Amino acid sequence: MKTIFWLAGETSGDLHASEVIAELTRRFGKYRHIGIGGPRMKERGLEQLYPFNRFNVMGFTEVIKHLRFFMKVEKRIRKLLRQELPDLVVLVDYPGFNLRIARIADDEGIPVLYYICPQFWAWNHKRVHQLKDYTRHVACILPFEKDLLDIHRINATYVGHPIAEEVNIELGREGFAEAHGLDPDMQWIGFLPGSRDMEIERLLPLYLEASRYFDRTRYQLLISKSHSVSNKLFFDMIEQYDAGHVHIIGGNTYEMMKYCRALACTSGTATLEAAYIGTPAVIVYKASKLTYFVAKRYVGIERIGLPNIVLGENVLPELIQDAATPGALYQRMLFLLEDGPERERIIAKLGELHEMLGGKHASSEVADLMEKLLESRLYVSL
């Protein structure tokens, strides 16, 4: 039985990788999957090495706090790869740690597929050289990434964005309203604070404060809760801010994105999902002061929101760091809620993004690449 080592350190990576594992199982039967991933990958058969929540950190200061843990994990993975010699290593996003593992795997002669390319085009351009030196192939999910990697003669394939096959609307508006105790005759405004505890700590208070400004006779306020965040942290904060006026939505996130008239989204994959679905959103980003200082110095792009980056223009409003205040968020969301040519223009642009990212099935494309790499590994071993 062939063994595949996986490393996905974030909730979105867990989802994307689980779809690929499912596709592999459907096509070829059972592989042995070992490594680091979340509950979805575990459901598909992954043998987890560590609890997934230990990896769900972001930002410079946050990583430094967990440095001892990551050094311990790296040492264990080095030993595992040397002893197990898996047939393929698949690294999913999470570049700060995954590129170190790519080097270790390459030193052991194990082919590496990197799925969801590090955003070298935004900052830390030296990662291009690491991709060239330590990976056999890169699976890109944004259309322009392959062209940039081709310049450096890196084997790369644009596989399509995984959200094109993962976004699944199961409930109609009435069914969604019934499932979550909402009034379908009212307009809904949605807040998506993120899938990490540190995002909840920084942004949920902002969203709760902003939610107080809206006319509750006209709007119902919805806040999503990711299964990956601490229940205690989330609900303690709801109680602390006396937020009985908000409706907490656990699950049916895509329905929430679709049926809300406007959204506030923490910068990340959710912004692209909402844009793909077609709902106007304000993109919000807040980090620690040190993380933001370093990022501002080294990030080489004007925009932080993925929809704006893909479209190459500021279609959705962005509120970054100190600019992200409850009042500013309220004003930007009011702008998105209003009928008129500007809202129509935004929705038309989001339709363009939908066309750009659709058309390919990422899990199938990545499974094809894995099959080829596994075959080449077999050929070399013979």
Overview of this structure, please?
With 382 residues, the protein is an alpha/beta fold. Helix content is 51%, strand content 15%. It has helices spanning 11-28, 39-43, 60-65, 67-84, 95-107, 127-134, 143-151, 163-166, 173-180, 197-211, 231-240, 253-259, 269-277, 289-298, 306-311, 326-337, 341-357, 362-381; strands spanning 3-8, 32-36, 46-48, 88-92, 112-115, 137-140, 156-158, 187-192, 219-224, 246-249, 262-266, 281-285, 318-320. Strands 3-2-1-4-5-6-7 form a 7-stranded parallel sheet, with helices on both faces. Strands 10-9-8-11-12-13 form a 6-stranded parallel sheet, sandwiched between helices. The longest helix is centred in the last third of the chain and has 20 residues, at 362-381. The two termini are 16 Å apart.
